[in-house]
Design goal:
alpha+beta, Serum Albumin, Chain A, Domain 1, 7-stranded antiparallel sheet, 16 helices, 19 strands, globular, disordered N terminus
Length: about 550
C-alpha cells in the first residue's frame, strides 16, 4: 500500500481568527479575548493561564516554556522562559541518589519561568490590560471546571501525586479520584493568580508568593531560594528561520533542541526523493526515520544552553546536512551504534504527553505559537502549600548522568550537564511556517522528544501533499530518537507497511499515542483549525 484512504476529518473554519488549544475552556477564553479586540499575544497569554488551571498535569505556574510569534509586518518575537537550575545546583548533585530523585520531589524542581515569560510577552506585544488576561484563569480556579474523561484517568493513574500530601488533598481529594464531569476547584491557586493579576510578575519572583515558595522549598529539601527567583530571567532570542522549498520555517533556537532537530530533518529530506512513493508508504517512512535518527544523534552530542555551550552552526549547514543525507541507505536501516553521539545505553520512550501547546492565527497574518510544560506528568508531583500550583521536574531534562537516559529515554551528553543558572535542553518547538511573506501554518505539540518528529511529519503532510490540518494532525506518526535503536510506531498503520519497514531492518515497537498536536492553517482563503483526536483539545474561530 503506497497511500492511505483519507480519514476525511474536517478542520474548523473561520475567516477572522482561529485558536487551537488542548482544552475547550482555554480555547473559549482566548477566543473571547480576540472578540474584545485583543491581539494574538493577548489570546496566547490568556489561554496559557487558563491551561495552567485546567491542565495541571501538563503545565502551570511552576513550569516554563517557549513562545514564538510572527506579526503581519514580518517582525518576530521569540521568548525562552525555560526553567533554570538553582544557583546551588551542581553537575553531580544527583550522583549516588536513586533515579527518581531527579524526577519527583522538591529537589527535582528547577526555577519556574512561566509567569515571567508570559509577562514578557504581554509587555512586548500585548494590548489588553494584564489583569484582564488572567481573569478567566482566576474564575476557572475559583469556581471550578469540569474534569474530562482523559484528565480523570490521568489523575487516578498518577504515580507521583499520592506521595505529596498537598497534591493528594487537592488533585485526588484525599483518595477519592475525580470522575468525569465532576468539578475541580482550586481556591489556593485562584488566590495566587489574583495576586499576580494585581501585582504583576514581580509577585511571583519577589513578592509574597516568592516568599512562600522559597520557604516551602527550604522546608522540604528543595534547592530553589528567594535569590533564585529574583535572579530568574526570560531570554529574548532570535528565531531559527530556514527555507524549505517555497516556504520559510520559523522555530525555536536553543535552549530548545526541538527547533534544530525539526530543521535538520527537513533539510536532510529536502534533497531526496522521500515523497515519491506517497505519504505513509514504507519508503516515505523509512526516509523519515533515518533523518530522525541522525538529528537525534547530533542533539545528544552537541546541543545545550547557548549561555553555556557554543551550539555549532554546522548543525544546520547545508554541507553537514548533505553528509547526513549521503549516509542514508534508501533500502536499509542504519544501525544507530554506527553514528556519532554519546556513550550508548539501553533506554525506551516513556509515554508522557506532559506539555501543552497553543496555536493562534488571525486574518491579518499575525501568528503566535506557545508551548509550555512541567516536564513529566504532574511535574515533580509536589504542590506548594497555600499557593496551589505544582512544581516542575525539569532537573531531569539535564544530563543528570551524562550518557544515560532521562525521563523520556533521551540520551544527553556533557553539553547538557547540570550547572547553576543553566537551562536544560527542551524538545519544545513552537513553529510558524510562512509562504509568500505571510504566516501560513502555526503548530506545536507535547510529547517530549516526539515533539520534533511529529511536527516534521505533520508539516510535510500539509506542505508536500496539501493535506488539511486535521488529517495531518490525526494520522498515525512514527518516532526515532537514535537511542534506543527502535522505530516507535503509533497504532493505526496498515500491517503491510509495518512489515515492509521491518524488512528494511527497522526494529519496531508499537505505541498507543505519541502526540497531542494542534495546528492552525491559512488555506484556500480560510483559516482552518485542528485539535488532536487523541486528546480533548478544541479549535474555534471568530
Amino acid at each position: 500500500m503506497k497511500d492511505f484512504e483519507r480519514w476525511g476529518a474536517l478542520p474548523v473554519h473561520s475567516r477572522r481568527a482561529m485558536v487551537a488549544t488542548a482544552d475547550a475552556d482555554a480555547t473559549e477564553a482566548a477566543v473571547t479575548v480576540l472578540r474584545e479586540g485583543g491581539n494574538v499575544i493577548d489570546a496566547a497569554v490568556t489561554a496559557a493561564f487558563a491551561l495552567s488551571v485546567t491542565q495541571p498535569g501538563m503545565c502551570g505556574l511552576g513550569g516554563g516554556g517557549h513562545l514564538l510569534a510572527r506579526f503581519a509586518d514580518g517582525a518576530g518575537l521569540c521568548l525562552d522562559f525555560r526553567e533554570q537550575a538553582p544557583l546551588a545546583a551542581s553537575r553531580d548533585m544527583f550522583a549516588g541518589a536513586p533515579p527518581e530523585a531527579s524526577m519527583m520531589g522538591w529537589r527535582a524542581a528547577a526555577v519556574p519561568g512561566a509567569v515571567k515569560g508570559l509577562a514578557a510577552a504581554h509587555r512586548r506585544a500585548g494590548s489588553l490590560p494584564w489583569a484582564r488576561l488572567l481573569a478567566p484563569a482566576i474564575r476557572l480556579a475559583a469556581e471550578g471546571h469540569a474534569v474530562g474523561y482523559l484528565r480523570s484517568e490521568m489523575l487516578a493513574g498518577s504515580g507521583v501525586l499520592p506521595h505529596d500530601l498537598e497534591s493528594y488533598r487537592i488533585f485526588l481529594r484525599n483518595g477519592r479520584p475525580f470522575q468525569p464531569g465532576e468539578i475541580l476547584r482550586q481556591p489556593e491557586l485562584a488566590a495566587t493568580l489574583d495576586r499576580i493579576a494585581r501585582n504583576g510578575a514581580d509577585e511571583f519572583y519577589r513578592g509574597a508568593t516568592a516568599d512562600e515558595l522559597a520557604r516551602a522549598c527550604a522546608a522540604h529539601g528543595g534547592a530553589i531560594t528567594k535569590a533564585d527567583l529574583a535572579a530568574y530571567a526570560c531570554d529574548e532570542r532570535q528565531p531559527l528561520i530556514r527555507p524549505y522549498r517555497d516556504r520559510e520555517v520559523w522555530t525555536m533556537p536553543p535552549s530548545s533542541a526541538g527547533g534544530v532537530g525539526l530543521l535538520q530533518i527537513l533539510g536532510i529530506l529536502e534533497g531526496t526523493e522521500f515523497a515519491a512513493d506517497g505519504p505513509l508508504s514504507s519508503a516515505f517512512l523509512h526516509w523519515m526515520a533515518e533523518a530522525m535518527r541522525r538529528a537525534f544523534a547530533d542533539r545528544a552530542a552537541r546541543i545545550g544552553d547557548p549561555a553555556f555551550i557554543a551550539v555549532p552552526e554546522e548543525l544546520l549547514d547545508p554541507a553537514h546536512l548533505a553528509r547526513l543525507r549521503a549516509s542514508i541507505d534508501p533500502s536499509r536501516a542504519t544501525p544507530s551504534a554506527s553514528l556519532a553521539g554519546c556513550p550508548l545505553c539501553p533506554a525506551e520512550v516513556r509515554e508522557a504527553p506532559c506539555t501543552t501547546h497553543v496555536s493562534i492565527l488571525d486574518s491579518a497574518g499575525n501568528a503566535a505559537a506557545l508551548t509550555f510544560t512541567l516536564n513529566g506528568r504532574y511535574g515533580a508531583g509536589v504542590t506548594v502549600p497555600g499557593l496551589g500550583f505544582l512544581l516542575n521536574n525539569d532537573m531531569n531534562n539535564f544530563a543528570v548522568r551524562p550518557g544515560t537516559p532521562n525521563l523520556y529515554g533521551v540520551v544527553h551528553g556533557e553539553a547538557n550537564a547540570i550547572a547553576p543558572g543553566k537551562r536544560p535542553l527542551s524538545s519544545m518547538a513552537p513553529t510558524i511556517v510562512c509562504r509568500a511573506g505571510q504566516a501560513e501554518i502555526v503548530m506545536g505539540t507535547p510529547g517530549g522528544p516526539t515533539i520534533v518528529t511529529a511536527l516534521a511529519q505533520a508539516l510535510l503532510y500539509m506542505t508536500e501533499f496539501d493535506w488539511n490540518p486535521q488529517d495531518a494532525v490525526n494520522v498515525p506518526k512514527i518516532h526515532h530518537q537514535w537511542m534506543p535503536d527502535v522505530l516507535y510506531v503509533e497504532r493505526g498503520f496498515a500491517a503491510d507497511i509495518t512489515r515492509a519497514l521491518a524488512a528494511r531492518g527497522h526494529r519496531l515497537e508499537s505505541k498507543p499515542s505519541l502526540t497531542d498536536m494542534n495546528a492552525v492553517v491559512r488555506r484556500g482563503g480560510c483559516l482552518e483549525g485542528a485539535a488532536d483526536c487523541r486528546r480533548e483539545g478544541r479549535a474555534a474561530g471568530i
